[in-house]
Amino acid sequence: MTDLDEIYRELILDHGGRPRNRGELSGANAHANGHNPVCGDRLRLYIKLAGDMIEEIAFTGDGCQIFRASASMMTEAVKGRRVSEARRLFDAFHRLLTESPERELSAEDEALGKLLAFAGVQRFPIRVKCATLAWHTLAAALDGGRPAVSTE
Ligand code: ZN
Questions:
Q1: What is the Å distance from ligand 1's center to 125 Cα?
Q2: CB 36 within 8 Å of CB 135
Q3: What pLDDT score does 107 carry?
Q4: Ligand 1 centre and the CA of 131: distance in Å?
Q5: Do residues 133 and 39 make contact, with C-beta atoms less than 8 angstroms apart?
Q6: Domains, the chain, ranges and CATH?
Q7: How far is ligand 1, taken at its centre, from the CA of residue 69, in Å?
Q8: How far from the centroid of its chain's Cα atoms is residue 82's Cα?
Q9: What is the 39 CA–ligand 1 centroid distance (Å)?
Q10: What distance in angstroms lies between residue 136's CA and the mean position of ligand 1's atoms?
Q11: By three-state DSSP, how is residue 56 classified?
């Protein structure tokens, strides 16, 4: 295991054990629900949009450690960003988990920063949905709160 793998593992343990931005958000003006029936992960996402800026974001719900770590780190990653930037991050995160792990990382991939910690999840296909659920739910909330997303 390299030092970087160790740092990534600790990030996931830390956020999975103590998720940030958890709880309801008063004054939220965008919401969506997400559910991963394969694992049982479930969340409700609350976003306070100011124009095209994600001013505040929080979630309720629970699931496995990968889900909790991903939801926690997603909220930290997109808070204070423009909606267009959040969508680009989601695209890069999705590529990270679904495309060849041997490919060259682009500048957009490198912009994932701490989120690169999830690259190893790709080796466990059943866990990919746990890691992407919060992001799919984010996209649904930004698209106007489609009633619910399911990764099935
Ligand atoms: Zn899960």
A1: 11
A2: no
A3: 87
A4: 7
A5: no
A6: 3-143 (3.90.1010.10)
A7: 10
A8: 16
A9: 5
A10: 14
A11: strand
Query: How many C-alpha atoms does 22 have within 13 Å on its Cβ side?
Result: 19
The length of the chain in residues reads: 152
pLDDT digits (tens, 9 = 90+) for 1-28: 678 888 999 999 999 999 999 999 999 9
Got the DSSP string for 84-146?
HHHHHHHHHHHHHHHS-TTSPP-HHHHTTGGGGGGGGGGGSHHHHHHHHHHHHHHHHHHTT--
pLDDT, residue 146, reads 58
Cα 63 to middle of ligand 1, angstroms: 6
Q: What are phi and psi of 116, to 5 degrees?
A: -60, -15
Q: Residue type at 32?
A: A
Low-confidence ranges of the chain (pLDDT < 50): none
Indicate the angle between helix axes 3-17 and 65-78, nearest 10 degrees: 90
For residue 14, give every residue at least 6 positions away whose Cβ sits within 8 Å of its Cβ, in sequence order, or none: 69
Q: Structure tokens of 3?
A: 């030092």
**Ligand 1 centroid vs 64 CA: distance in angstroms?**
4
